[in-house]
Each structure stands twice: as structure tokens, then as C-alpha cells.
Write a structure and sequence with these properties.
alpha/beta; 6-stranded mixed β-sheet; 4-stranded antiparallel β-sheet; 40% helix; globular
Length: 555
């Protein structure tokens, strides 16, 4: 009996082992490599990326010149996918029902690593690069007043350098590039997740413009958000001849806003909300039969965001009752509060330390300091670090926020709750600026941006190589994801199964300005840089600011 039991136990053990081996393993096709060989390949990556600086500069400048708002990034997507297709990537267009969204895949087998960055720009942020005061290329037009023109060029530079090594060294793995469409509206990434584009991904590296080279892990202190538009409908009438026959949808919008603004007195400190009125009627002598108000509702957790959403719906219903109108609402976008992966961030930070900050020229610092003077930048940042020109000291590995009163949102967070994710910040912008503003475009097609993108591409390429040849990185990343990040918090989408991407957003604005903007699209066949094409002397500053910028300490 004892022998039979022992045999049975061994048989069960073998069966369990075979069952385990049969399960799909994250990054199972990875190969290992000696430390010396890995170090040599990283140096080769850095050298190759330096050789590609001209191509990188052209990509950064070209996307800057397009200046396309969310969901309307037609030229940008056509240009970037064209480069990737020429380099052997397989392109899938129009993913998740978004015409300007795509994936570009190259390689074979596991691991599958996603590499993304945003591509949309900011309304009314048109600005000549290298000019340290307001000087739009096209007055009133959109522009890259955050710097989203630089992230995908960084990714493409890094991946093309890595691709050469993967081919030669026969390193298995699949690279998938993808764009953050309409990030300013938080309009696409939750739909990518919902529609399965990340279900087989082993890890994700995202890149975002900043003023230093850095990476974080854990909860970064930002808010999640739901973007919702309330549409009121009433009855038109002559505003003077028969106003009693009208039911004003605009009155309903204004009453909702009044109610919400009184509600602010009772909101928690972590909550943020802001709105615009995209439709307030047509003309004063017609009672508006239709009007709408668009809200962003932000908080630190999913339940609290949903509570704000419910409160807003009550306000809308109350306003409709008071005005005898009807109301419907539509979700235009969403984002969870983010949480980034610790093992991946630690790996990235070691490569960041290897790469270091770019060497800024005296001209770079003059432009930065003159812009800071122009914009009355604070003397210190939120971590009490001095703001004086471009960063000269490398950022630290940022740990989770112990306490946060909330802030901005980014829909990369939705991906971070579905696959281990990090965000690489790279130094292409000027410290101390307001954000979402024309001044943030000043550096974004200048040597500052070009150098920052090159530095970021090196850190990213090195980290991707680590992830491809060191299986323990992804194993640890998934252990953190499963045992720490998602142990007590489970992702529940803020969008429903029937919500659709708001792909018509910004159509009118781009239709108005694109014909004028096309005249200024960058022509790299004729001009070395976009600065040269625009006839800008680098840097251009106010005469009074030049002496201040230099006297602040030069490099």
C-alpha cells in the first residue's frame, strides 16, 4: 500500500510538472547573455543612436510642424508608420475604431514588448521654436505646447538601433510600437485595452517629454479621470417675440454649472473638475434648443471618480427639470490613477545613470533662461529644487508618493493596470513653464529637444535589450504586478462595453487651421532643420533678456 501511494505521489508530481510546463510562460523564449557581451552591445547601441541624430532631428521637427490635435493626427500617423513600414514593421491601421491609431510590429516570439508615446498637440499653442517669447507660426492655431512631437521619434530611433542588434545576434522577441492618440482628451488608451491590443503584451515602456531624464515606480500621485459631455435639448423660439414658447438648453447648461460650482465647497481636497461649453447656442435672438457642457472629473481612486460622475449626472438631471429640457450624456475619455512597475523602473534607472544628461550649449541655456524670465517661472520646483536654465543634475529614481492631493491624469495608467509598465521621462522641455501652453513649444524643435530625445533613446534601447536577454527582469516585473500592485486593487474600466472613441473631436478646429499650417510643414529635403526653414536665429530672445540669461551663470 505504501509503495502504491509513493508511486501515485510521484505520478501526480510529474503530472503537475508537465502541466506547469504546458502553461504559457511570460517571456519564455528569452535568451541569456554574458554581462560583458551585454555591456558591449549597450555601447554599440549608444554609438548607433548617435549616428542617427540627423534622422532623429528630422522626425522631431517634422511632427512638430504638423501640429495636429487629438483624433486628427492624420499627417503624423502617416509619416511615422511610413518610416516603420520601410524598416520592415508590419502595420495595423485604425485600431480600436480610431482612424489615426495603429500598431507596428517587428520580430518574432516572446517576449512581446510594447513601446508607446503620445502624438497629439494643444489648442492655440502655435509657436516658433527657438523664440523665447510669444510668436506663433499661425495665430490661433494648434501647436506642440507640451512636446508630444518628440516621443515617437525617440521610440523609433531606439527601436531601429536595437533591431540591427537583434537581427545580427538572433535575439528573439517582438517589438510593438503604438501611438497615444488624443491623450489630451484621454481618449484612446482605455479603448486599446478594452479591445485586446495589450492582452498578449509582456511589458510596456512609454515615453513622455520632461525637463530631466528620469523614471518612477508605484503610485505617482496623479488623479484618474472621466471625461463626459452633457447634451441638453429644449425648444427654439424667437428670443424677443415669443420667449415664453422657448425652453433654453443653454439655461440648463448654466444652471448645471452653477450647481456644480456650489458643490465645489463640499468636494474633497483630492478632487479636480473643470469644464468648457462647446455648444452654447447659435445666436442671441433664438432661444438655444441645444447646448452642451464638457466636464473632466478627477480623483485619486476609481470609486471616488465614479461618485463624482454620479454627482454630475444628478446635477444635470436637476438642471433639466428646472428648465423643462431633456439631457443625455456621453463618455469621451477616461484614465485610471497610474501605478508603474518597480523592477522595470530600477532597470531603466541604471541605464539612465549610464547615459546621463545631454551636454547643453551656452545657446541652449540662454534660450531656457530667457523663456523662464518671459514666463515668470518660479525659483524652485515642487520638490524645492532650484529652477535656473536646463537641468544640470540627473534626476533620482522617483519613489511612490506617500501623500498626494491629486493633480493631472494620463491614460497610460489604464495600460499600467493591465501589463507591467513604466514611463521614461526625457529632457526636451524647459523647466518652470506652465504646461499645456505655447511656451512649452519653444524648445520642441531646437537642439534642446534633439539632444534630449537622443539621450532618451539610448536609455530606452538599453533597457529593451536588458528585458530581451535577462529573463529575470520580466519575471520580477510580473511578480510585482501580481503580488504588490494588483493584490488589493483590481482594474475596472471607466468606459463601458458600448462607449465609442470620440473620433470627431477637433475636426472643426483642424479644418479651420490645417490649410494655413500646411504652408509651414517641414521640408527636410530643402532645409537642414525646421529652425532654418522658418528663418529663426537660435536662440532668439528679447534684447533685455539676453544679458539676464547669460548673467544667470551660462552653462
Amino acid at each position: 500500500m505504501k509503495k502504491n501511494f509513493t508511486f501515485f505521489r510521484r505520478l501526480v508530481g510529474v503530472g503537475c510538472l508537465l502541466g506547469t510546463l504546458a502553461l504559457p510562460q511570460r517571456g519564455a523564449a528569452q535568451t541569456t547573455m554574458s554581462p560583458a557581451k551585454l555591456e558591449a552591445l549597450k555601447k554599440e547601441l549608444a554609438t548607433e543612436i548617435d549616428k542617427q541624430q540627423k534622422a532623429t532631428q528630422q522626425m522631431v521637427d517634422m511632427v512638430f510642424s504638423f501640429g495636429e490635435l487629438g483624433f486628427q493626427e492624420v499627417e503624423t500617423s502617416r509619416y511615422l508608420t511610413g518610416i516603420l513600414k520601410k524598416n520592415g514593421f508590419t502595420i495595423e491601421q485604425g485600431i480600436a475604431g480610431v482612424p489615426t491609431a495603429w500598431t507596428a510590429k517587428w520580430g518574432s516570439g516572446k517576449p512581446l514588448i510594447a513601446i508607446g508615446s503620445d502624438i497629439d498637440c494643444i489648442p492655440k499653442a502655435s509657436q516658433k521654436p527657438g523664440v523665447a517669447y510669444h510668436d506663433p507660426i499661425v495665430a490661433g492655431a494648434p501647436g506642440h505646447g507640451e512636446g508630444h512631437n518628440s516621443g515617437e521619434p525617440l521610440n523609433i530611433t531606439a527601436v531601429l538601433a536595437l533591431k540591427k542588434i537583434m537581427e545580427r545576434e538572433k535575439i528573439p522577441g517582438t517589438l510593438m510600437l503604438w501611438p497615444g492618440v488624443a491623450e489630451e482628451q484621454l481618449g484612446a488608451k482605455a479603448f486599446y485595452v478594452r479591445d485586446g491590443y495589450f492582452k498578449d503584451v509582456d511589458a510596456c515602456i512609454f515615453t513622455h517629454v520632461a525637463d530631466n531624464l528620469g523614471v518612477s515606480y508605484g503610485d505617482g500621485g496623479g488623479n484618474g479621470m472621466i471625461s463626459v459631455k452633457f447634451n441638453f435639448e429644449g425648444q427654439a423660439a424667437h428670443s424677443a417675440g415669443a420667449p415664453w414658447r422657448g425652453r433654453s438648453a443653454l439655461d440648463a447648461v448654466e444652471l448645471m454649472d452653477i450647481g456644480w460650482n456650489f458643490h465645489r465647497e463640499h468636494m474633497e481636497v483630492t478632487q479636480r473638475s473643470h469644464y468648457v461649453i462647446p455648444d452654447g447656442g447659435d445666436q442671441p435672438n433664438v432661444v438655444p434648443s441645444k447646448a452642451s457642457v464638457w466636464y473632466y472629473l478627477r480623483d485619486r481612486t476609481y470609486p471616488k471618480i465614479m461618485q463624482m460622475y454620479a454627482d454630475a449626472q444628478k446635477m444635470a438631471e436637476g438642471a433639466a427639470l428646472m428648465t423643462n429640457t431633456t439631457v443625455t450624456h456621453e463618455v469621451l475619455g477616461s484614465a485610471w490613477p497610474g501605478h508603474m512597475n518597480k523592477p522595470m523602473a530600477e532597470t531603466m534607472y541604471q541605464n539612465i545613470r549610464t547615459v546621463g544628461l545631454p551636454t547643453w550649449s551656452a545657446d541652449d541655456q540662454v534660450l531656457a533662461r530667457a523663456t523662464q524670465v518671459e514666463m515668470k517661472a518660479p525659483k524652485t520646483d515642487r520638490r524645492n529644487k532650484p529652477i535656473d536654465g536646463l537641468a544640470m543634475k540627473l534626476d533620482t529614481l522617483n519613489k511612490p508618493e506617500e501623500f498626494s492631493i491629486g493633480g493631472g491624469s494620463d491614460d497610460i495608467a489604464d495600460i499600467s493596470w493591465n501589463v507591467p509598465t513604466i514611463v521614461l521621462r526625457y529632457p526636451s522641455n524647459i523647466p518652470g513653464l506652465p504646461g499645456h501652453h505655447w511656451s512649452n513649444a519653444i524648445s520642441m524643435a531646437t537642439p534642446i529637444a534633439h539632444k534630449g530625445v537622443t539621450a532618451g533613446a539610448k536609455a530606452e534601447a538599453m533597457t529593451l535589450l536588458d528585458m530581451l536577454v535577462k529573463p529575470e527582469i520580466l519575471k520580477e516585473a510580473w511578480a510585482y504586478f501580481n503580488e504588490v500592485q494588483t493584490k488589493n486593487t483590481k482594474y475596472t474600466p471607466l468606459i463601458s462595453k458600448t462607449d465609442k472613441p470620440a473620433i470627431t473631436l477637433n475636426e472643426r478646429i483642424m479644418a479651420e487651421y490645417r490649410p494655413q499650417m500646411k504652408k509651414y510643414y517641414y521640408n527636410p529635403a530643402k532645409y537642414k532643420t525646421y529652425l532654418e526653414q522658418l528663418g529663426i536665429k537660435y536662440p532668439t530672445v528679447r534684447p533685455a533678456d539676453a544679458s539676464k540669461a547669460v548673467s544667470s551663470g551660462g552653462e
